[in-house]
Specification:
Helix content is 49%, strand content 3%. The protein is built from 33 helices and 8 strands. The strands form 4 sheets. The chain has a two-stranded antiparallel sheet with strand order 1-4. It has a two-stranded antiparallel ribbon with strand order 2-3. The chain has a two-stranded antiparallel ribbon with strand order 5-6. A hairpin with a 7-residue loop joins strand 5 and strand 6. Helix 12 runs antiparallel to helix 20 and helix 21 crosses helix 23. The two termini are 43 Å apart.
Amino acid sequence: MNMVRAAGWFLAHVVWAIVLLVISPVWGADNEALERQFVDQVLPILRERCFDCHSHAAGEASGGLILDSRTGWEVGGVSGPAIVPGTPSESLLLKAVRYEDPDLKMPPDERLSANELKYIEKWIEQGAVDPRASAIESVDHSASSSSDGVLWSLAPIVQPVVPGLRSIGWSRAEIDRFILAELQRKGLKPVDDAERLRLLRRLHFDLVGLPPTVSDITAFESRFKVDRARAVEEVVDRLLLSTHFGERWGRHWLDVARYAESNGMAWNMTLPHAWRYRDYVIRAFNSGKPFNRFLMEQLAGDLLPSQCEEERVEGIVATGFLALGPKTLYEKESEIPRERCEWVDEQINTVSKAMLGLTVGCARCHDHKFDPIPTRDYYALAGIFFNTQILSGPKVGKPAEWKKAGSVESESIPISSAQEIFQARQLQENISELGAQLDQLNKRKKAEEKSQVAGQEGSSSIPRADNAPSQNLLQEIESVQAQLDSLNKQANPLEYAFGVQDAQAMEPSFIRLRGLWNQLGDEVPRGFLSSLKMSDEIKIPEQASGRLQLAQWISHSQNPLTPRVAVNRMWHHLFGRGLVETVDNFGSSGALPSHPELLDYLADRFVHELDWSVKKLIREIVLSRTYQLSTAVDAADYQIDPENRLLWRSSPRRLDAEALRDSILMAGGLLDTSPVQGSAVSALKYTMLTPGLVEKIHGSSQRLHRSVYIAPLRGQDTDDFLIAFDFPDPGVVIGDRESTTVPSQSLVLMNSPLVEESARAMAVRLLSDGSSMDQVKLVELAHKIALGRLPSPAEIDRAQAALQQFPGNQLQRWTAYCQALMMSTEFRYLY
């Protein structure tokens, strides 16, 4: 055993030496990344939750603490500096927001979310990098409003005039003309086009989340030489038709839908039918379902008319969007009203952020402090969800109480056909009748046996055979038992899904004073946001929950938020940054659009020209010259726009966790690209999660399938590898994942069994497929598989030197080299 450990230690260090020799990986996050992290994650929290009391605009700042400039927190208030960079435990600001001191609780009206706390703690731990100058950053939201004072994102979409430009030949699409116009205004010039194989790799990862194969590379290079534009178009069209497109872009939506297969919270039970919603989302993106229909189905699919049985089931499954959030389960009947308020609050937060890009949940306790969302609007929406029944597993907390509260499956929705449901009910009635009949017969049998025993105790005679229960009774019992066995064999289990349905009786909605569930204020009619009006008013019938009308209002062609948010999310996934950086927040505290005319051009075109087609819009974007630029850095441009907000080049991006994991498996030839039927959670039914169960779920046969099929679990590490590379918290809406670069990731790549197994499989693959090749050709093949390109002469020389220096047999040497490629910067970044 010691020899094995020593060999493992030696192998790890040699692999690391090879990595340093072959390709220098990135160590640690650079200052620019930390600055962006502050701007993207921490500054919005300070603006929304702190500036109201701790800024120059607030007048006399509470406690003397100013947070709208770096100097403010460095100097601190009456208690001294608010932050000790690098030391969260000694930072007063963190103690205050954690509510650790009963006399120091900030903000006083509502605690920060777990995610917000995590961002602040991480920021301080990494040195509290704050790029703001010492000068005041006042809370001036005038720029967020149009000339008539309306929040920019709420203003109607007006189709802008496409710019007329010098150098018009540079543009390949209307998108390019908007980008180039802004570049010219700022004195910037775009860099050259991306190298062809880097562009191919970028397209593959952005559209399907997988690298191009060796045959893909060969075919593309051949067509590219003949006609560049046509070669790129053919690749894009092929990828858009691939079933992997839905797996890639469906996963983006699952982040927003806070999809998980366990409940989370104190009673973290498995959700065995959640996977149906996952598959619905993947199918929706693959089929090209119009995005407005996609949203409507998730809000009210059960209420929409259906043309066939399949469409009816799809509508029910789609409402899992509203049902699959984390829920605090009640233990006593008296807790139900309180918990219902929390469930409704979670639904409002999810719908408003995911579909409208607004933080409507902030208006639960008081009118929104920045956006035109009064408390009445919050409770108008709440009325819709108070009259909506959530069907996603038990509602009571204690597993022992689940059966007492009724059948567990009564808290989900049967999606079998009406005929199957009718037959199942008839069969169950017949089984119940036969069961009752059999019980009566067995009681008669026991009574006869008891009577005979009593008679024999008073007699000295030997018992006779005819003292047994009558032969007719025994035959009748045997006959009924046979019928019961036959019916039980015919019983096919019904299929269930999680979703919602309207309550049987509508109830009024009241404002909850200060957000408290038991402090009722004025009654509020069910409705929508008062700041958004349509030309045709949508009214909610008295005996309807209002979900169908909410779906119509959100997907209305005149609602400016929905298409703006949707196209911005697509842009974000293709460029690494949205035209509005705060993809989940289009309110006053969010970022302003970098290209407002382009955003409205795309939003208007998405609705009126492309009929809400996600695939068509993505196609237009990736065929633009802007998308196809290289990542080269021009020194003059960099001085003007170091963060590349105006898109004079393409910004390098790290692969997300799933794409990186899938690429490693694919390089080794281990990835099973077939869709997964069901989930590892399904067989567990409703079970409280334990460490042993989590390990069983993660060790299932699905581990070699695409990462989208790994069951995300709340309150548990979904997968060690995915967590290391910033897999999101499935408890909240996350449209913009973190993308960190830290030393621990290199250690994961060095020591992960997944990487080691894939590297060995890749080496076997090389030595098998390339058995007739010399070492140079094998190195070239390895680079094509892992990096999508041929190595340079210098890389070939370094590779050969490393392969000669490494001890062991041929397979061990090539395994180490393959792992080095997987650990490289180029493997996990798009350039």
